[in-house]
Amino acid sequence: MKAEIIAVGTEILTGQIVNTNAQFLSEKLAQLGIDVYFQTAVGDNVDRLTEVIDLASQRSDLIILCGGLGPTEDDLTKQTLAAYLGRPLIFDEEANQKLDRFFAMRPEHSRTPNNERQAQLIEGSIPLQNITGLAVGGLLEANGRSYVVLPGPPSELKPMVNENLVPLLSQDNAKLYSRVLRFFGIGESQLVTILADYIEEQTDPTIAPYAKTGEVTLRLSTKAGSQEEADAKLDRLEAQLLSVKTLDGQLLENLHYGYGDENSLAQVVFQLLKSNDKTITAAESLTAGLFQASLADFSGSSQVFNGGFVTYSIEEKSKMLGIPLADLQEHGVVSSFTAQKMAEGARLKTGADIGVSLTGVAGPGELEGHPAGTVFIGLATEEEVTSIEVLIGGRSRSDVRYISCLHAFNLVRKTLLKGKHLL
Fold first, then answer.
1. Domains defined along the chain, listed by start
2. How far apart are CA 94 and CA 282, in angstroms?
3. In the chain, what is the straight-line distance between the N-terminal and C-terminal CA atoms, in Å?
4. Which one of 292, 308, 360, 371 has the lowest number of neighbouring Cβ atoms within 10 Å?
């Protein structure tokens, strides 16, 4: 089924309101397995609205009109669609009774003839009752097409869609099920390159890559009659994708860290720390507490994180973490040595199982001869102290700091997954 959404209202075209209904409806229809091919906005004009309805009827199976169901003269959606289809408008008894109750409770407001328009629908329509307003909507089958009329205010449209329209449309359509795979350590261009054959040959399930700051996701989607059927199809595709090798020869599975739109790398590490009963601390320079703030975003963070350090200057690194100032001056603050000493000092002073450090050049200029985006990340456990160097070039200060934290969380994640012998 191909769907088209028509938003009716001059106020949309003049920019007075934002058409959020189209986004909401597109998401709902996608979940039902209904493809939206076109979205149109048209003003409160009979001729132009008729033209748009006629075009939609030629190319779409489901035409949804939003707005123009109110009592005023410029609310003309039902009247225009009825005339186009050659059908009369009739009163819906339930909507009419709601009007009676509404005005009975408000004697200061007189019921006028134009209010009657809100209780009308096109003959042959299935009424869609308005839970939060007065204008009744409708679903109508005519000339091999399905037409839906909905109110414009989102506070009325959304309940009507969720409570009335979705159950009707669900009866004859397989639903769309999706799974989001999250990856760190590979860019979108490389991911698309190594998965080119799968992407070019996709039918069902489909594969859609999305780039995010510092990471990339794959959304796998399939139409199925049940969650079980969808899981079987998505499981097969996921296994195939994760077995693909990257350009440097490692399995894509090694860069896959989690699922879902909201399940961030920080959250994955937080859950790993909890499940392994481990604690963590951090000493941050260029990120100025961002790593620790990310941990604190999660409820129960005190179970894994008791505190840490923000040591921006070389003097504070020495004083707060117990690193000889002469050693810091010899090696420089942007160095593997300093990163390791910061992580080790933070762990020893707090008694945490894992110590993390971040030091480097956020930019825009150089520091100690290192270009902007040069970052050293240290990690200390009871058994091992190590560090990695990361180059995050061509990014803003905020991006360098954010991506640095992602690298730090990923380092912790890999350490936790390597085995408890390091901890």
1. 2-170 (3.40.980.10), 175-259 (3.30.70.2860), 265-422 (3.90.950.20)
2. 63
3. 55
4. 371
Confidence of residue 419 (pLDDT cuts 50, 70, 90): low
DSSP per-residue string spanning 326-387: HHHHHH-SSSHHHHHHHHHHHHHHHT-SEEEEEEE--SSS-BTTBPTTEEEEEEE-SS-EEE
Decide: helix, strand or coil at residue 274.
helix
Give the contacts of 130 (CB within 8 A, at least 6 positions apart): 95, 98, 136, 137, 151, 156, 159, 160
- The tokens of 33 are what? 């397995």
What tokens does 412 get? Answer: 């912790």
| Single-letter residue type at 206 | T
Task: Map tokens 């329209």 to a residue.
Answer: 165
Global pTM exceeds 0.90: no
148: tokens are 């839906």
